[in-house]
Amino acid sequence: MNFHHGPNTFVGQVDIRVQNLDRSLLFYKEMIGFQVLDQTETTATLTADGKTVLLTLVQPEDVIPKQSRTTGLYHFAILLPTRADLGKILLHFIQAGYPLQGASDHLVSEALYLADPDGNGIEIYSDRPSSSWSWRNDEVIMTTEAMDAQSVLDEAQGATWNGLPADTIMGHIHLHVSELRSTEEFYKKGLGFDVVCRYGNQALFISTGKYHHHIGLNTWNGIGAPEPPANSVGLASFSLIFANSEKRKNILEQLKEIGATVTEENGYFVTKDPSGNRIHLLVK
What we know:
Oligomer: single chain
Number of domains: 1
């Protein structure tokens, strides 16, 4: 099953703030392999297939560095089509000498972790077949073990990394939040997601259509963590894609029922979770 098409709800695009657009563009083009779709003096939209925006870079006026112990982006996660693609980019990072923060086996997926020049977190991963995932009491079993890096590299058979494959997508987003109770209510009762995994009382993983997660939520920056300033490096917004207008209409009503604020800006609907993470509500 394709977990990033209707009837599922999924993350389509992530918008992040950076300190220096030129520096960030060099990184995202040369190191990650994005193409630039559109660019101004202060923004750039990035794509893998030449038409679909996956990531937007924004350089705010009077921008300040990433603020610690705040809500916002933990990482955005780029989903590669195959394990061989993961092997190619791992070899690319090794050859380039770019530092990785981790390389993990989560049972449902295998993932590389790194940060851009501003400290924005990035995961690059490939999924294992969903038929191999294990479930217990409606929760998917995930863990964090060391990746078998040699096996992943072997999968690539020494092939050269030539940028992100055209069918690369935004697989999920993982957010720092200030607490989990009202956050869970917002994403479940408001946006219609299901909790598919809990890590104690510190993290939730949620999805639609039995994906291992479309969104991760954690309190690892501290209970009561504040929102970062609007001009700091980090998450500007992300978009959720709904299957059709009727589905989005129902979601808008659910959000209003739980007291969430929904506004209309430039022809699209915007809401914020209880920690101030900004979400665009779009239809495919």
